[in-house]
Amino acid sequence: MVDSHFIEDQRLVKKLLANLQPTGNQTGYYAELYVDPVTGQEWEKYEFEYEDSSTDAVGLRKLPYPSTDKIIEIALFSPHDDEANGAAGLLLELEDDENDFREKLLNQIENNIDRISEERYDLVYWRAQLYDSDNKRSILGKHISKIESDAAHYKAMSRRAKQLKQKKKTLPPTTE
What we know:
The chain has helices spanning about 10-15, 70-75, 80-95, 100-110, 120-125, 145-170; strands at about 5, 20-25, 30-35, 40-50, 55-65. The chain is α+β, with helices and mostly antiparallel strands.
């Protein structure tokens, strides 16, 4: 499973962490950096809320991060739910750095709706917070018309995600 970019399965995380060495460095997301002494591969250890509980769990992500397009592909098509979960979570984190992933993600979902199971859509929908219609773009130094335009964009993305969720429920089940 080390060929995965994201690992959130707690058994696999524990197993891999046993073979990694901490570097003593942290990222801007308050995550610790580790290195595999055999391969030199760097990993980021982070915490996330585990399965709708208030309990935090540990995840690992390979560094450097893949491109946004690759992260979206992993979120939608990885055969491993924990990897898809980690990818969707990273999309949301990167949005804080003004990486606007929503339109790309929704386009991929629309183009591949027959290939994505309802369960996978739900996983991505909730972890990437596609339901959230709040403006994520900075408002500093912007004219009010641009702020309103940005807010309308996020409302449209949220509405589109909800419509896709409804559409997915009406389609025959997908076999993955």
